[in-house]
């Protein structure tokens, strides 16, 4: 019987060890499954981070472009602030921008200036004005004036 009890303990120990090994093996497989799933999530996270980084870089590029465009528009607005729109009297309706401020008075063609070109009207000293870009013409019968006020005598550039 003692022999039987020793065998019982030996076999119980073997069952315990095999059961422990079986549980460990099961946990190892479970851990391996979790590792695979974790790696998939890490790879997806890296892909999302790369896409987000590309998106941020794209936005930074657009931001730089918009800042540059904003600066250019501010400069154009500042340039436009140096002029006032006046209606010139003559043989038809003609609008021009008259310089104001410290510059010597001159007139720029309104349609050209509105399209981003600063075309100074050329006068011949006898009331004839022409835009060198769009070739619009105006004859003022020797006197240039605005509707509401007299304009200073422009500098004649000659023909």
Quick structural summary:
The chain has 159 residues and is α+β, with helices and mostly antiparallel strands. Helix content is 53%, strand content 14%. The protein has helices spanning 2-80, 110-114, and strands spanning 83-88, 94-99, 107-109, 122-123, 128-130, 137-139.
Give me the strand/helix succession. Answer: HEEEHEEE
How much helicity do the residues have?
A: 40-55%
Query: What structural class should be given to the helix and strand makeup?
Result: alpha+beta
Total helical elements: 2
Radius of gyration: 44 Å
Q: Kindly state the mean pLDDT as a whole number?
A: 76
Cα end-to-end separation: 136 Å
How many discrete domains? 2
**Which ranges are low-confidence, i.e. pLDDT below 50, for 5 or more consecutive residues?**
143-159
Give the tally of β-strands. 6
- Assembly state here? single chain
Biggest sheet character: 3 strands, antiparallel
Shape designation:
rod-shaped
Description:
The structure is a single chain. This protein is an alpha+beta fold and 159 residues long. The protein has 2 domains: 1-80; 83-139, no CATH class. It has 2 helices and 6 strands; from the N terminus they run αβββαβββ. The strands form 2 sheets. Strands 1-2-3 form a 3-stranded antiparallel beta sheet. A 3-stranded antiparallel beta sheet has the order 4-5-6, with no helix packed on it. Strand 5 (128-130) and strand 6 (137-139) form a beta hairpin. Residues 143-159 have low confidence and may be disordered.
């Amino acid at each position: 019987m003692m022999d039987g009890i020793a065998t019982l303990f030996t076999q119980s120990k073997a069952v315990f060890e095999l059961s422990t090994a079986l549980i460990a093996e099961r946990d190892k497989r479970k851990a391996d499954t979790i590792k695979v799933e974790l790696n998939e999530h890490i790879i997806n996270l890296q892909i999302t981070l790369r896409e987000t980084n590309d998106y941020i870089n794209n936005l930074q590029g657009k931001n730089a472009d918009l800042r540059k465009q904003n600066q250019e528009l501010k400069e154009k607005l500042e340039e436009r602030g140096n002029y006032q729109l006046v209606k010139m009297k003559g043989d038809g309706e003609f609008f021009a921008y008259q310089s104001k401020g410290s510059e010597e008075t001159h007139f720029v063609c309104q349609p050209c200036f509105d399209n981003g070109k600063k075309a100074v009207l050329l006068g011949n000293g006898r009331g004839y004005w022409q835009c060198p870009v769009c070739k619009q013409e105006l004859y003022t019968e020797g006197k240039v004036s605005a509707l509401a006020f007299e304009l200073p005598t422009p500098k004649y550039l000659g023909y």
